[in-house]
Each structure stands twice: as C-alpha cells, then as structure tokens.
Automatic annotation (TrEMBL):
This is Lysophospholipase L1. The lineage of its organism: Bacteria, Bacillati, Actinomycetota, Actinomycetes, Propionibacteriales. Residues 1-22 form the signal peptide. Residues 343-374 are annotated as: Disordered. Coiled coil: none annotated. It holds the Pfam family Lipase_GDSL_2. Keywords: Signal. Residues 30-215 form the SGNH hydrolase-type esterase domain. It comes from Nocardioides terrae. Gene3D superfamilies: SGNH hydrolase.
Amino acid sequence: MVGLAALLLLPLTLAAAPGARASDPLRILVYGDSITQGSTGDYTWRYFLDRHLRDAGVPFDLVGPRRGLHHLPEGADDDLDYAEPGFDTDHAAVWGQKLTAPVADLGDLAADHTPDVVIALIGLNDLVWNHVTPEALAERWRAEVAEVRAASPAADVVLVQVPQTWYADVPAYNAELVALSAELDGPAARVVTTALPDFDRRTDTWDGTHPTASGDLKIAEAVEAALYLAGVAPPAGMTPVVQNGPRTASSLTAEAGVGQVSLSWHDVPGVTTEWLERRDVSSGGAWDRYPLDFPAGTTSWTAAAVDGHRWEFRLRPAKGTAVSADVTSPVVSVVPGPPPAPSTAAPVVGPPLGPVGPVRARSPRRDRVRTSAPAVPTATGYRLLVAPVRSCRRHPRASAFRPAGHDRRSPSATVRARARALWVRWYAVRDGVAGPLAAASSACTRVR
C-alpha cells in the first residue's frame, strides 16, 4: 500500500462510476456497528466525513436504510439527537451488528442502494462476543466484497481498521484487512484499507469502546485519507478543533432553605452523569466539585450550605468518562437562611445531627448486599450511597459513590451489586439535609 506521505505527491483525478455523469453525486454507503452508528448526543465520524466532503466541494450522497442513533438508555435505533444534526445522516450501521451475523446483508444493501463507494467499519463484535478468529473474518470479507461487486461492479470498498487495539485479536484482524485489500484491489474497482488512527482509550472513547468527538474525528480522518488513495476524494484539509463531552447542558433551579439549598434539573439526551459544582461567593471560595455525581434519572438533590452566605451552583454534563470542559448549565445563585421568625416565638433548632456508624455490610447471597447501622438521634431519614469496586483494599473516591434509591426511614437496606465488592456509605438526614460523615459511616464487603 502506498504511504500517505507519498500519496500527497501524486496527482489526483476524481473518477466517476461507469455510466454515471460527472455531475452525479458520489453515492457512499457507510456500513458498520455501534462505532459508526453512534448513540444519543454523538457527532459520529459520519458527520466529520460529511463536513470534509462538503468543504472540499465533492458532490456526494450518503445512502442507506437508517438515519438515527442508538438511543440511550432505552436502546431504540431511531434517535435523531445528534450533537450536530445538519448533515446527511443516511447510513447502514446498527448497534451490536456483526459481520458474521448481520442485521442487514451487505450484498443486499449494495443491490438496493447502488453505491459508488462502500465504507465499512465492523468486526469488533465478532471478535469480542462471538470469538470469531481474524482469519475467519478475512474469509468472510472476501465473500462480502464479491457480493458487493456482483451488485455494483464498479464500487470501491474502504475497509476501516478497528481502532480499539486494546481488545484481543484486533491487531491481528487489522493486519488481515491490510493483506486482504492488497489482494483484492484492482484498477476498475478499488479495495483499500485505512491507516490505523492513533487512538487513546482514555480520551478517544467514553466507555472504553465507543468514540468521543476526538475519536470520531480520528476515524473520519483515516477514512478521508483512504478515499484519497482510492481516487474518489481530495486529501483532508485542516483538522477542526473538537471538544469531548455532551454539547447540551441541563437547566438548574435552586430553592433556599435553612442551612440547605434544594436543587432540581432535568435529564438531557446523551448525558449519563451530571457533575454538581458549587462555590461560596460570600467567603471568596473557588468553584469545587460536589463529592457526589448524579446518574441520569436523578434530577434533584438537597445540599447543606451556610446560612446568610451567597452560594452559586452549576451542572457539568458527562457521557461516561467524557466530561464537558466547555459546557455547563446556567449558574444559579441563592442565599439560604431561615424565614422571618413569627412574632410570637423564635424558631426551634434541634441538636446537631451526628454521623451514622458503625456501618455493617455483608453479602448473604449472589448479587446482593445487606447493610445496616444504628439509628441516629434526631434523624428523620437515612441516605444510602454505594460504590462498586474490584476489592475492598482501597477506599474509593467520594465521586465514585452513587445514591442507592430514595431516602429511607431506617439505616437498613438490601441492594443488588454486580461487582466483586461493594462499598456502602450511610448519611443521617433531617428535614432533607444530610449530616456529617465519620470513618465508621462506610463499610465494604465482597459480593458473592
């Protein structure tokens, strides 16, 4: 295969498919799995490919039977909540699709949509879930290319290397794709393989598999270079600057109380977690992250706050590990404190609320953890937080704990745990405000 540096020295002639007019748009069928389809709130690498071709002045038409993303969390495949919906969203990618067990047969798709170019990024599900060997996948590709050519003889095929090379057999599969393209490539109908993007698992995926905006951009750039090699598109121009994390923030409202602030918000499509940030403006404090993160479905919280001080709060959206650095909710400002006292009597303040402890936790049966603690005087409720871990050797960070349902009347609960071990943490609550923590307020147990 010709190196990309050498390609930049070659003259480019954009070839039209036989029988097509030069003015006809280039019909491109994008085929794949979740990496290509994307999920709620994503750009997808299809967007960046569309943007490149459009900016380069290439007449094109992305074709396929689908338009939507995979919806989180329900799982439907007709979600149109793209980060940027203003592009040609037609495609033939399906969440969970496998080359060896396709939802849509590639040969049938080629017959139905008569593409000039087929771009395919698929195979990871076959390797990881069905344990198909790289060699068997290459043989399947040989048959698939033959079916594409039978349906659309002049169609070029771009085989996209799987960028998640930390999965077993992916490097070997990518090597098979490179060898296969060299074998099947021809002057009348090209078969080319993309270069392997420099993919960073931490920044280019939001869950260890599915790409963030920076990951989508890297895939698109590799595809653009392969289209240049095939002679159907000009080389990529300047790389756009992208930000990872959700592009839309929730609204946030705040209501002052005595020693507390009640916050509420709404779920945003594609946001899996909300970070709550706060600062004490009266004391000149800087923004800091609240010690709890709030998963999708949690839309309210009551936070303790010093009376008479002006507090500011904001939410920062995240999708998995991709946290928005440049997007937050509008800031809300509030001053907690008691309402004007009735003229007949001053408000009655109870004794300070103490911490819960000692907390006990055990796993009586498979996937279940039972936890309890002594009651705290003057508490009106109890709040349970949990953190799944690999072992109990290390105490997790505060941000790892998640609310386990609504507040309870007593510090006793049985929760489901699909982890090797589970940390539990109890807060005493009075009038909706959580009390302090102590070392004995948390405990960990191995899960059966």
